[in-house]
Design a protein that fits this description.
single chain; elongated; about 55% helix; alpha+beta; Arc Repressor Mutant, subunit A; 17 helices
């Protein structure tokens, strides 16, 4: 169909935001929610709604539980595109209690509703973006902003509620809710680990940007402690992802320890969410800069020795003797796999460390040269200029605005 690309793009975008999209014949609608509302007999979209849908109409649906949906009939078909449910605001326990009081829900509904809202994505603080996306799609499908209508539907009543406070029944519903929430969390964690292990920074950042207090396990009454606990788990997951990306523990352990200390220093949930983004970014960079998945064992050992101590004897003979291999063979193998000679690789690593020290310290250049494993400051200057195009002194003057 002519609009397959547009529909596909919207579905992929919604998936990134954690919002379900469904395509189905309006005569045979599926279970359209997340499996909890119908179980507790809360108000749901009714099947007769789909039967009454009209073409060239964009439906924006808000229900009494603060959930939002968008729906339309695809051109020249009886196929329904349904997006949702999603939230446009965080739903706190106070909000849930207010809803329960407003709609006269039994007290046993609190844990059920809490679990339900934990599964929904909060995609934005208002629905302007979603309506903009849907209107753009509608204009594409029907040929302009005057070619369709927008119908707003609000469900303000929960009159269909069945009050069932049987303990065994509620336990069954809670078990189902726990299982569904657990499965969703593990799936999200696996997708995040895959992105990090491949160094896909943008994809990983998109995933972590959707993390908020709302979807984290509430193990204590202290919200800050909860978010720190989540950060500890996240740090472990990212560490394992970097290991899956063939980064040596030498590099992983240093970053992991740094992040663990920063997690314990957090003072607010807002700080935590920023730190989570930083963690994902740094672990992705670790994979990009230190992954050795394409190197042979011999070359991996050489690179690890270089990274471990830039001030050591890193000559070809030293590596060959340590690994008990022929120097000529090791030299050929190293250049074939890395694209540069061993000497150039070592010098590049030493220059990059010099750049770090020039940015982060006020050390004299001669001292920096020694820390980089080149005691001769003149040779360090010559090597630095070869890779960077300017001397260490000129580089420092540039970054400090002379």
């Amino acid at each position: 169909m002519a609009y397959d690309a547009e529909i596909g793009f919207l579905c992929r975008l919604m998936k990134k935001y954690g919002v379900q999209t469904l395509l189905f014949p309006r005569s045979n609608p599926p279970q359209i929610d997340l499996g909890l509302r119908e179980n507790v007999h809360l108000l749901n979209l009714q099947n007769d709604f789909f039967a009454q849908m009209e073409h060239r109409t964009l439906y924006a649906i808000d229900d009494a539980l603060l959930c939002h949906y968008n729906a339309l009939l695809l051109p020249d078909s009886d196929q329904v595109l349904l997006i949702g449910p999603y939230l446009t605001q965080d739903v706190t326990e106070q909000t849930i209690l207010h809803l329960m009081d407003k709609h006269r829900l039994p007290s046993s509904s609190l844990p059920i509703l809490t679990h339900y809202y934990q599964q929904l994505s909060v995609i934005i603080t208002n629905d302007t973006m979603m309506l903009g996306l849907m209107n753009t799609l509608a204009e594409t499908l029907w040929g302009g902003e005057c070619s369709y209508e927008t119908e707003y539907i609000e469900n303000s009543s929960l009159a269909d509620i069945t009050r069932n406070e049987d303990p065994a029944y509620l336990t069954k519903i809670m078990d189902a809710a726990d299982l569904k929430l657990m499965e969703a969390r593990y799936e999200a964690e696996n997708r995040l680990m895959y992105a990090v292990s491949h160094g896909h920074t943008h994809q990983a950042q998109m995933m972590i940007s959707h993390a908020n207090e709302h979807v984290m396990e509430q193990r204590t009454m202290d919200s800050l402690r909860n978010i720190k606990n989540y950060g500890i788990v996240l740090n472990v997951l990212l560490r394992k992802a970097a290991e899956d990306g063939s980064v040596h523990p030498l590099h992983i352990d240093q970053l992991s320890s740094t992040m663990a200390r920063r997690l314990e220093q957090l003072r607010s949930p807002g700080e935590a969410l920023k730190l989570f983004s930083t963690m994902v970014h740094k672990y992705c960079l670790l994979v990009k800069n230190h992954s050795m998945k394409n190197y042979s064992q011999l070359v991996q050992h050489v690179i690890l020795r270089i990274d471990a101590d830039l001030t050591a004897d890193l000559s070809l003979k030293s590596h060959a003797d340590f690994l008990n291999v022929n120097p000529s063979y090791l030299s050929t193998l190293f250049k074939r796999e890395t694209g540069m000679t061993l000497t150039d690789y070592v010098n590049r690593q030493r220059v990059e460390h010099g750049i770090f020290l020039l940015n982060a310290t006020d050390m004299q250049i001669q001292t920096i040269a020694q820390y980089c494993g080149i005691p001769d400051v003149n040779y360090f200057t010559k090597t630095f200029k070869k890779f960077i195009g300017k001397t260490p002194k000129e580089y420092r003057q540039d970054i400090r605005g002379r």
